[in-house]
Amino acid sequence: MARMAVEERRAALVDAALRVMVRDGLAAGTTRAVVAEAGMSLASFHYAFSSRDELLQEVVHRVVGREVLAATADLRPEEGLAGCLRRAAAGYLEHLEREPGHEQLMLELTLHAVRNPSLRPLATEQYRAYTAAAAGLLEQAAALTGRRWVRPVPELARLLVTLVDGATTTWLVDRDTEATRAVLDAAVELFVAGQAEPTA
């Protein structure tokens, strides 16, 4: 029971951190602001997390988890590999429209971390999580459609992260959903062409 209580406390603090930082920016997400938002004491924070950096790492994992759920919720094998990836792109785009503050926070966190050597491991973990999620999606889509990737999946996953990163940043600037959808659809066609073959 005690372990569950700690996990619930951690989850509540992550939720509170997201609310504070989406609303007021990364710098506003101090431990005091987060515990105030969560209705907890500082002692409760330090019981659940060893540091603010550990909390931020959990925030990254929470957002990436939601991105993955959005992208993989409606994959349909009968539509083929390109169709699965188009549905993944559409699911992610719906998530982006629904939670733009989460993606803006991830961008803010990246830029802040690369300027601060002590936080660079956080940016590294952020992109490790992105790449792992992309690799999982590529492997799942290929398995569902009876295909296999010709190039190494880690290489393709890095390419996919790069494409989605660019589309996300552009959308955050212009909020042009239809243009972003068209770009992602074109990216899927280019991505799949010559990169996959039947498993048998």
Descriptive notes:
The protein has 200 residues and is mainly α. It folds into 2 domains: 1-49; 61-198, Orthogonal Bundle (Tetracycline Repressor, domain 2), CATH 1.10.357. The protein is 79% helix and 3% strand. The protein contains 9 helices and 2 strands. The N and C termini lie far apart (50 Å).
Question: Summed up, what is this model?
Answer:
This protein has two domains: 1-49; 61-198, Tetracycline Repressor, domain 2, CATH 1.10.357. A two-stranded antiparallel sheet has the order 1-2. The protein has helices at 2-24, 31-38, 42-48, 52-72, 80-98, 100-115, 120-145, 153-174, 177-192; strands spanning 147-149, 196-198.
List keywords for this structure.
Tetracycline Repressor, domain 2, 2 strands, 200 residues, two-stranded antiparallel sheet, 79% helix, mainly alpha, 3% strand
